[in-house]
Amino acid sequence: MIGTGSESNTPAPPALRPGLPTFHRVFSKNLEEGNQAFKDLFDYEQFQLASGEFNSELLSLESCESILGSFRYFTTAFNQGALRADQIGIGLPALDSQCLWWGHAHGSSSSFEIPTLIPGETLHQRTQSGPPILAAFIQRSKLESAAEAMGLREHIDDVFRPNRTSRWLACCPKKTARARHRLGEILRQGLAGSSELRADEVQAIILSEILELLDDRIQQRNLPSRADAALVERAGATFDANFELRSVSALALTLGVPRRTLYRAFKEVTGMGIHQFLTTRRLNRVFCELKEASPSEASVTTIAQQHGFTELGRFAGHYKQLFGERPKDTLRG
User: Fold this and answer.
1) Which of 26, 64, 125, 209 has the smallest count of CB within 10 Å of its CB?
2) What local confidence, expressed as pLDDT, does residue 154 receive?
3) Domain edge (last residue) among 215, 249, 279
4) Are residues 135 and 211 in the same domain?
5) 234 and 106 both lie in a single domain
6) What is the CATH number of the domain that holds 260?
7) pLDDT of residue 107
8) Pairwise CA distance, residues 60 & 40, whole Å
9) Number of domains in the chain
10) Helix (H, G, I), strand (E, B) or coil at 117
11) Are both 208 and 305 inside the same structural domain?
């Protein structure tokens, strides 16, 4: 269930009759709350990339084996996560959204690339303050059964197969906008308590909209290789295990790739330089750990050093610039 356990939850509208979907609204005031909102659906981690207060809003609707969600960020953030269980995910950002998925925008004048996600793949998403991102998550077996009945099973096998060559579904922009509007209205009406649709009816609409987009998909424009995202993942994991890799040259040598290849991959996927992104990511992790720690049992110095920060004065300066408060203030809560 998305968003349970957050103090910022707004109670869902009361059920008018049995079988209604469940609605949630979660407003996250910091990274820790934002990560918790997704914990049951994703192995998920968010990083704040720009200075200022971190706020995000999640609206969700759960109906049978599907979830419809709207995600809105009020600062620049980078999200990384992998789906749990046998779910399929489809994103429906606004046509003018500045969000980047795996380092790339989602549209052109003639086609609109819908980002899709399957288990075993990692989401890389850079978001900015702007229109909310609509997304649908549904059990794969349910989508396959519905596609079989409509004679569209080959589309499911093609778009959502393991080891696929592309994570994008190219569709007509107008049809994408129509699907986004219809599903967005269902979510808004449900949160307002004005929807009379049962959970199975909502799920049927979600399935129908996804299958219509699959049936109407068009020739996809050439998009860069998935290798950049995979390289960024490898570099992050290598850096986490070897904080002594201070230089880009040392990191590139360890990974066995040219420096310029590493530079290009980070710029494409994260929109930032290598050290800037990796340092910002470590600062975010320190923030989350300080937020959860007890002041009587933990210290800023110990937590900072565990994340590879040895020059504590410089660390404190970067931390305050990003989060607007001193590390010890975060620890004190």
Assistant:
1) 64
2) 81
3) 215
4) yes
5) no
6) 1.10.10.60
7) 60
8) 13
9) 2
10) strand
11) no
Q: Which amino acid is it at 149?
A: A
Q: What are phi and psi of 81, to 5 degrees?
A: -170, 160
Q: Are 252 and 299 in the same domain?
A: yes
**Statement to judge: residues 87 and 50 lie in one domain:** yes
Give yes or no for a contact between 48 and 75, defined as CB atoms under 8 angstroms apart. Answer: yes
Which pTM value belongs to this model?
A: 0.71
Residue type, 324: G
Please tell me the distance from the alpha carbon of residue 154 to that of residue 92, in angstroms, as a whole number: 22
d(C-alpha 264, C-alpha 103), whole Å: 11
pLDDT at position 214, please? 83
Contact call for residues 212 and 179 (beta carbons, < 8 A): yes
The Cα angle at residue 139 between residues 134 and 144, in degrees rounded to 5: 110
Domain coverage including residue 271: 227-332
Report the b/e string of 156-182 with b at 16+ CB within 10 A. Answer: beebbeeeeeebbbbbeeebbeebbee
Element (H, E) at 61: strand 56-63
63 and 203 Cβ atoms separated by less than 8 Å: yes
Sorted by sequence, the CB contacts under 8 Å of residue 99 that are 6+ apart come out as 93, 105, 106, 125, 126, 127, 128, 130, 133
**Pair 157, 249 in one domain:** no
Residues 239 and 192 in one domain: no
The segments of the chain whose pLDDT lies below 70 read: 1-18, 107-111, 218-225
Question: Torsion angle, CA of 123/127/133/139, rounded to 10 degrees?
Answer: 10
The verdict on 70 and 204 lying in the same domain is yes
> Does residue 92 fall inside a structural domain?
yes
